[in-house]
Amino acid sequence: MPARPVEFSPELISLLRGGPKVVALTGAGVSQESGLRTFRDAQTGLWAQYKPTELASPEAFQRDPKLVWDWYAWRREAVKGVRPNPGHYALVEIEQRLPHFTLITQNVDNLHRFAGSQNVLELHGNIQRVRCADCYTFTETWDDDTESVPRCRVCNGLLRPDVVWFGESLPRDQLEAAVTAARSCDVFFSIGTSGVVQPAASLAFAAHNRGAVVVEINAEPTPLTPKADYVFEGKSGELLPELVEAIWG
Ligand code: OAD
């Protein structure tokens, strides 16, 4: 038997129909239905013995650059094979329908842009971009040598993915724009994120403290749940299209 459609509150629907300023923060849960494992899921195969949190750090790269490079090469390949899911497309539609909409993502998988979202702030970078660890020059191509990490053509530094590792600062322009959007929005959506990694997690609280209506869409409760005005527990790939349908269908 198909699951009963979720009942969104009439107040929320009418608020969203009125064209408020909306911010949506997404996390790995949004990509889960595309077949990507969330950050905290156990890894498989060759990589099962490593914890992602132990590979995604400058110290890990310093200790064993090749191991970290190979892990990202493997993840880059995994991402290439996946497609956006209905949750990503619902967010594209929301952007097209609302005059003021900012999408902030912690995901590095590029799936929001792939789906067609235009205004995307990437707080943790993008796994498809590669740059020099020393001089920051971006590169589209590199010599993939099986023995060592490819090097920068400008300064001979090691190449690395343009993602934010634990202990590194977030890209300043993206973070500043995200904070400004969160502080000035009327409605803040937190979608598919465990809300435990700062400073992204604090954006929802900043919005809440400024009086925004906070809506959480997540598979399970998070530290934000008690503060949220509306909580929809379930899959974003199902709930977001249902929400779009309820507002504009
Ligand atoms: P997590 O893996 O911590 O959390 C994913 C959340 O999505 C969990 O709360 C799941 O319950 C929920 N979830 C899973 N499947 C879902 C679905 N289909 N629909 C809705 N929710 C679902 O991922 P993030 O919160 O994104 O940072 O993690 C934040 C950051 O932690 C990542 O960007 C990464 C990591 O450290 C860096 O790499 C810097």
Give a concise summary.
This protein is of the alpha/beta class. The protein contains 10 helices and 9 strands. A hairpin with a 5-residue loop joins strand 4 (125-132) and strand 5.
Instruction: Characterize the largest beta sheet: strand count, sense, and whether it forms a barrel.
Output: 6 strands, parallel
Helix share, percent: 25-40%
Which molecules are bound besides the chains? 2'-O-acetyl adenosine-5-diphosphoribose
What's the helix-strand series? HEHHHHHEHEEEEHEHEEH
Strand order of the largest sheet: 3-2-1-7-8-9
**SSE-based structural type:** alpha/beta
User: How many strands appear in the DSSP assignment?
Assistant: 9
The low-confidence runs, each spanning 5 or more residues with pLDDT under 50, are: none
How much of the polypeptide forms β-strand, as a percent range? Answer: 15-25%
Termini gap: 23 Å
Q: What does this entry look like structurally?
A:
- The protein has helices at residues 10-17, 29-32, 52-55, 58-63, 65-80, 86-97, 111-115, 172-184, 200-209, 236-248; strands at 22-26, 101-105, 120-122, 125-132, 138-139, 159-163, 187-191, 213-218, 230-233.
- The strands form 2 sheets. Strands 3-2-1-7-8-9 form a 6-stranded parallel sheet, with helices on both faces. A 3-stranded antiparallel sheet has the order 5-4-6.
- The relative contact order is 0.19.
- Helix 1 (10-17) packs across helix 10, helix 6 (86-97) packs parallel to helix 10 and helix 8 packs parallel to helix 9.
- Strand 7 (187-191), helix 9 (200-209) and strand 8 form a beta-alpha-beta unit.
- Helices cover 37% and strands 17% of the residues.
- The mean pLDDT is 93.
- The protein starts with 9 loop residues before the first helix and ends with a helix.
- It has 10 helices and 9 strands.
- The longest helix is centred in the first third of the chain and has 16 residues, at 65-80.
- By secondary structure, the chain is an alpha/beta fold.
- Bound molecules: 2'-O-acetyl adenosine-5-diphosphoribose (OAD).
- Residues 27-29, 32-33, 38-40, 56, 106, 124, 164, 192-194, 197, 218-220, 222, 235-237 line the site of 2'-O-acetyl adenosine-5-diphosphoribose.
